[in-house]
Amino acid sequence: MPEGIATSDEITVEELQLAARNHGMPLEGLRYDVTPIGMHYLLTHFDIPEADAATWTLSIGGRVRSPLRVSMAEIAARPAVTMAVTMECAGNGRARLHPRPLSQPWLNEAVGTAEWTGTPLRPLLDEAGLEDDAIEVVFAGADHGTQGGVEQDYERSLPVAEAMRDEVLLAYGINGQPLPPQHGYPLRLIVPGWYGMTSVKWLTTITPVAEPFEGFQMDAYRVRQALEDPGTPVTRMQPRSLMVPPGFPDFFTRIRHVEPGRHTLTGRAWSGWGPIARVEVSIDGGSTWKDATLGQQSSHAWVPWTLTWDAAPGERELMTRATDVAGNVQPVDQPWNHHGVSNNMTQRVTVLVRG
Ligand SMILES: Nc1nc2c(c(=O)[nH]1)N[C@H]1C(S)=C(S)[C@@H](COP(=O)(O)O)O[C@H]1N2
Ligand SMILES: [Mo]
Questions:
Q1: What is the arrangement of strands in the sheet containing 303-311, beginning at the earlier edge strand?
Q2: Is the pLDDT reported for residue 1 higher than 80?
Q3: So what's the pLDDT on residue 277?
Q4: Which atom of ligand 1 is the closest one to the Cα of 88?
Q5: Ligand 1 pocket, 304 CB below 6 A?
Q6: Residues 6+ positions from 82 with CB-CB distance below 8 Å
Q7: Is the CB of residue 130 below 6 angstroms from any atom belonging to ligand 1?
Q8: Residue 323: what pLDDT?
Q9: Mean pLDDT computed over 296-311
Q10: CA of 49 to the centre of ligand 1 (A)
Q11: pLDDT score for 189
Q12: Domains, the chain
């Protein structure tokens, strides 16, 4: 087996170590338009750094005409925007791949929607004044560690045109409260539509650069078949629909128990490539599909859906899949890639309809 790929279906202690630090959103959390803070998924590569808003500074340097240093008080005094944004980890679905890429073993719960409060990034970049040769903007967090043998601060870049989009925020609040330590206190980037790795937490420096940025976390998020392949970068979220698992669960297997009769199945769908055009649900393991009814869509948050189900006794496999306006459809079988990123295969929920 190549490096970084599991040799057995058994979860390793190293994966369990990551899974215990980085939790997902329990899928019943899909009932909320805005995910309560403690239920939002979490992913932190290294340690949550110690931070104090009173002494925190954000520096903008590199290919700019006037380098800036701003305090949290100065950021808080700038125009504030609050925006509901659905964020998903690029590794969501990884643990269902065969063979399994060794990393955070998400099933399909690495998602959440928060109301982020912050100030738009663009006016700050305009104040600093990008040099004409700036092509990307590098964002660095205060957290530090090693990954793949490389010692690093957590750093990601965005093309200048993406960094300058109106919806890109420097966020200091979540759901009406200051950011808690685990979500990036006191300051993080929020890039709506993109997978979560782009939204750098504990943001300390912003550096426009004249060359493509080749930091470790850029290389780690590429869809490639083997480590030697160049592959393609992971950017925006692929469409995904998830349902609230109906009925009640068995503690250990999580298999659902449902009474026969009429039920309303509910869930949420999102895509980073535009609004959701269609959500389909199957109650027979993918043999037949029905269109769900979509609720109100907002620009950057998931859309709710519902479908009436007349449940007849027996074991059922429920599935759901989304299609976005760009025509991207969730696959029923997931194509494999080496890092297990940008997966969006259809959810399957096993349900026992009681006799
Ligand atoms: N500084 C820093 N920013 C980071 C990360 C990190 O480890 N360090 N993880 C990224 C990844 S991979 C994801 S999916 C999101 C998760 O954000 P959350 O923990 O607030 O849900 O943060 C991103 N920003
Ligand atoms: Mo992630």
A1: 240-243, 261-270, 303-311, 293-294
A2: no
A3: 98
A4: 14
A5: no
A6: 115, 116, 117, 173
A7: no
A8: 98
A9: 97
A10: 12
A11: 99
A12: 13-220 (3.90.420.10), 240-353 (2.60.40.650)
Which ligand 1 atom is nearest residue 112's CA? 21
- Mean pLDDT of all residues in 294-313: 97
Q: Is any atom of ligand 1 closer than 6 Å to the C-beta of 218? A: no
> Over the chain, what HEC string results?
CCCCECCCCCCCHHHHHHHHHCCCCCHHHHHCCCCCHHHCCCCCCCCCCCCCCCCCEEEECCCECCCEEEEHHHHHCCCCEEEEEEEECCCCCHHHCCCCECCCCCCCCCEEEEEEEEEECHHHHHHHCECCCCCEEEEEEEEEEEECCEEEEEEEEEEHHHHCCCCCEEEEEECCEECCHHHCCCCEEECCCECHHHCCCCEEEEEEECCCCCCHHHHCCEECCCCCCCCEECCECCCEEEECCCCEECCCCCCEEECCEEEEEEEEEECCCCCEEEEEEECCCCCCCEECEECCCCCCCCEEEEEEEEECCEEEEEEEEEEECCCCECCCCCCCCCCCCCCCCCEEEEEEECC
